[in-house]
Design goal:
The complex is a heterodimer of chains A (223) and B (420).
Chain A (H helix, E strand, L loop, with lengths): L1 H25 L3 H21 L3 H25 L2 H5 L5 H23 L10 H8 L7 H9 L13 H8 L3 H8 L3 H12 L1 H27 L1
Helix pairs in contact in A: 1-2, 2-3, 6-8, 8-9
Chain B lengths: L1 H12 L1 H38 L13 H6 L6 H9 L6 H8 L12 H12 L10 H18 L8 E4 L2 E4 L8 H10 L1 H11 L3 H24 L1 H7 L4 H11 L13 H5 L1 H18 L11 H4 L9 H26 L9 H8 L1 H27 L7 H29 L2
Antiparallel strand pairs in B: 1-2
The chains are: A mainly alpha (223), B mainly alpha (420).
């Protein structure tokens, strides 16, 4: 019952997110595009919530929908909307856009395929739980907590035990253990121990971006 | 009768139905509390403003005694005339009851009728939508301001848990593991309403108001998020229900007088927590667009700010959204710093052991009392401090609060590490 509801909600939210993503491209008015993007972020966050990754979902809302997109809107509102609404068609630009989108789509597909058991069964979670079938219900969260996000030698973070338990149709004990899944704690642990170096490198990239923006802003003001 | 009871029993025994029913009841309750507090805080605002400025405040709105006056004459003692009209002696129990209810003069309402009449007035006003606005966004902007604070209320715990024979009820609509972050995220979304209102009005001053709103809300969100990190380090959890339980057992964050709160570490933590409190409360003011920080609707330089072009209930939605944000902000301050529903001094555990329902009721009342106290504080500040200048607001947010909040995190970490 619960698993059925959550998978129905998953498809509803995922479809809505894809629709809104199309809306971003289809609308001529830049503000409408930005609002569609905000809705798309919201639906993606809802998908995260459905999978039990509450922290990821809320960070998606705070960072993307609540801050970055508001700044987008801030800039867009200062543009001349009438000029933006006229269609600009350029074949080379479209070609470049298609190539970039194709590369990105391929990258995402590769990531999805390299999830544990993605090529073997229908749902990664089911295969994952069969491979650890000896484990008693409720110990998944414990095991995940002691060993970090990827305890089975995989490079990619696996699905949360909440999703795994729902996919297995597990009993209430597992579901209860899964709802108490400490995803904030796990995320912090894996970010600051296992994935610390990529995390720090990303922070430096962001810092460089910030410094660059400040430098550019200063230069403009001097002229 | 027996079959009905059996049916109720079977419905409640079903886990899903039990969960659904209790959630709907809690949802309605918290929604009613928030809406009632929006009205109540408008009343508090007017009364306290009158009190601070040494004037009576709203005192004309009252219950008209036309029923009494109709029977009697238009003299000053309508009750006496009514009694004479019916031939009732003046010292019988009916007359005494009427006197006890103070029906012999004007009924004292303490201005409580004023918010109701304000609401009625706003409903009846002409709805004027200017020709030049962008209709769709002009219409959804007020909804985007009023909606988020209502949704954000879902995670605020208003009492502890109750064990019934059908299962446990946690007195909080959604017992999420990410409580404060949920409130930050959802109430952060109200910035869309403000900036869209400013933009879609297609007029200069509202547009400036919208831009100011988005810049200010984003700036203060950063400092707000960073300021509570010392607290979260101490609590070790993000679940608001657990945070309040911790404070009930170990002393409120700002009044650690019982349990573990008497340890050296907690009192050493008092300095970073006090700094957090000052930053957090100021940021709540900025987030709720209250007066020292109401740059987005500053009359002196922006006419009315982002809601200049709005009228009737659309304007009222912005007004109510501001008060709802204030109520949620005070609820969050109470929950994080003043023990939420906790009665304090170890009384929670004793009451719960005696009777859980009584304990829950007392805790709910305690929460409401603290909430009213904080709303009073908000109003007090509004009518005491003058409005800042725009550049001062931005400077305070980015150059003072951000740095102090980051330094505060290191201070708290050092205290938690070195003082055991």
């Amino acid at each position: 019952m619960e698993s059925a509801i959550s998978s129905i909600l998953f498809y509803v939210f995922a479809a809505a997110a894809v629709l809104c993503a199309f809306g971003v491209v289809a609308f001529r008015n830049p503000v409408s595009s930005a609002m569609n993007m905000a809705l798309c972020f919201g639906f993606t966050a809802a998908v995260y919530f459905g999978m039990g990754a509450q922290f990821l979902g809320i960070v998606q809302l705070i960072v993307y929908a609540g801050a970055i997109l508001v700044l987008f809107l801030f800039i867009i509102m200062m543009l001349d909307i009438k000029a933006e609404e006229h269609a600009r068609k350029s074949f080379p630009l479209a070609c470049i856009a298609v190539i970039i989108a194709g590369i990105f789509a391929g990258f995402v597909t590769k990531v999805a395929i390299s999830l544990p058991g993605a090529t073997v069964g229908e749902c990664p979670a089911i295969v994952l739980c069969e491979s650890i079938g000896e484990l008693a219900p409720g110990t998944i969260a414990q095991k995940a907590e002691t060993e970090g996000f990827a305890p089975y030698g995989s490079a990619m973070p696996e699905l949360s035990p909440a999703a795994a338990a729902k996919a297995l149709g597990a009993d209430e004990a597992t579901a209860a253990a899964a709802t108490a899944f400490p995803d904030t704690k796990l995320l912090g642990q894996s970010l600051f121990t296992k994935y610390n170096i990529p995390f720090v490198i990303l922070s430096f990239a962001l810092l460089a971006g910030t410094v660059g923006a400040v430098a550019l802003g200063r230069k403009l003001r001097k002229d | 009768m027996n079959t009905i009871l059996q049916w109720c029993d079977s419905v409640l025994s079903n886990e899903i139905w039990f969960y659904l029913l209790t959630t709907v009841i809690k949802l309605v309750l918290i929604f009613a509390v928030i809406l009632a507090f929006v009205v109540l805080s408008i009343w508090i605002e007017r009364r306290v403003a009158g009190w601070i400025q040494d004037r009576p405040g709203p005192n004309r709105a009252g219950i008209p005694l036309f029923l009494f006056k109709r029977f009697g004459s238009k003299e000053k003692q309508p009750l006496k005339n009514v009694l004479h009209f019916f031939g009732i002696p003046e010292d019988c129990w009916i007359a005494r009851l009427c006197k006890w209810l103070r029906l012999d003069g004007e009924i004292p309402t303490f201005g409580l009728m004023q918010p109701c009449l304000d609401g009625g007035k706003l409903f009846l006003k002409q709805e004027l939508t200017p020709k030049y606005v962008r209709k769709v966004y002009f219409t959804i902007a007020p909804m985007l301001v009023l909606g988020p604070p209502m949704v954000a209320a879902a995670v605020i715990p208003f009492a502890s848990t109750v064990n019934t024979c059908y299962g446990e009820i946690s007195m909080c609509v959604a017992n999420l593991g990410i409580g404060p972050l949920w409130i930050f995220a959802i109430s952060g979304l109200s910035v869309y309403g403000l900036s869209l209102a400013g933009w879609s009005s297609n007029s200069k001053y509202p547009f400036l108001g919208g831009l100011r709103a988005s810049a200010q809300l984003i700036s203060y969100e950063v400092a707000m998020g960073l300021s509570i990190i010392p607290l979260l380090m101490m609590f070790g959890t993000l679940n608001l229900q657990d945070i309040v339980q911790f404070q009930a057992d170990n002393g409120w964050t700002l009044l650690p007088f019982w349990g573990e709160g008497l340890s050296v570490q907690r009192w050493a933590m008092y300095a970073p927590i006090a700094i957090s409190f000052v930053i957090f409360v100021t940021c709540v003011f900025a987030e709720a667009n209250r007066t020292p920080f109401d740059m987005a609707e500053c009359e002196t330089d922006l006419v009315g700010g982002y809601h200049t072009e709005y009228s009737s209930m659309k304007f009222a939605s912005f007004f109510m959204g501001e008060y709802a944000a204030m109520v949620i902000g005070s609820a969050l301050v109470v929950t994080l710093f003043f023990g939420g529903w906790s009665i304090g001094f170890g009384a929670d555990a004793a009451l719960s052991a005696w009777n859980e329902w009584v304990a829950v009721l007392c805790q709910f009342l305690m929460f409401l009392i603290k909430l009213v106290a904080f709303i009073f504080f908000f109003v007090w500040v509004r009518w005491t401090l003058p409005r800042f200048r725009w550049d001062q607001v931005m400077k305070l947010g980015w150059l003072v609060f951000l740095e102090v909040a980051v330094a505060n995190i290191f201070l708290a970490a050092a205290i938690l590490y070195f003082i055991q």
